Amino acid sequence: MALRPSAAANGTDKQGSTAISHGSQEKQKQLLASDTGHFSMIKALHLADLITELNGFCGFMSIISSMRYCLGPPDAYAPIWAALAFMPFGLFFDFMDGKVARWRKKSSLMGQELDSLADLISFGVSPAACAFALGLRSAIDTLLLSFFVLCGLTRLARFNVTVSALPKDATGKSKYFEGTPIPTSLAIVAGMAWCVSQGTVNGGEHGVLGGTLGQGILEFHPIVGIFVGWGCAMVSKSIHIPKP
């Protein structure tokens, strides 16, 4: 989750850049509130915002690829590899939008909101959809995957509310993330990629992601506990991750 360089988000103390940001934001407010003119919302977007949209695009394409895998034969792994690959590309665009915004010295009122929404798709919904495609499909599995996604949603909402109140360093950036950032779910994605390479996925010769416990409606895969733990870490207030 990359911080976008707005005065509120980064707490900049340089009066010149703050004035530029304020003027840019006022112009964007007028474009968004305008009742006339074609594509006024598109005109209000900055280059960094368009890069953020590419993050969301990667997340959506990952979800579609997971769905393709569910529809195809279980030994056709190309769609699931595509699903796994799109998520790191989303992280690339998540880093680039902040760099481009700082390079152009333009802040965006929509930037932080777009960033959070795109992160939810790419690093919350996409990993959960991929896990479902790979075999975590029981009723309890899906319930716990939903818990993971909702934790990501809650963590991003809290970030947007509290980012201006977090302690800042000399450059005006927040000193730490409260709770693990949602892009860290790519560690789970790496684990799923390893499972695909080993054939321990739905339809694989070695079973489904470590096997199941329980029967009937109570059946679940113990490995889904990783998603539960990661979700709890995202919404934790006691975990402080220093920013690089």
In short:
It is found in: Endoplasmic reticulum membrane. Keywords: Endoplasmic reticulum, Lipid biosynthesis, Lipid metabolism, Membrane, Phospholipid biosynthesis, Phospholipid metabolism, Transferase, Transmembrane, Transmembrane helix. With 244 residues, the protein is mainly alpha-helical.
* CATH topology value: Four Helix Bundle (Hemerythrin (Met), subunit A)
| CATH hierarchy: architecture | Up-down Bundle
| Helix/strand structural class | mainly alpha
Please mark out the parts with pLDDT under 50 across 5 or more consecutive residues, or reply none.
6-20
Report the portion of residues in β strands.
under 5%
CATH class: Mainly Alpha
Order of helices and strands: HHHHHHHEHHE
| Mean of residue pLDDT values | 80
* Tally of strands: 2
* Number of continuous helical runs: 9
Rg:
20 Å
Percent range for helical residues? 55-70%
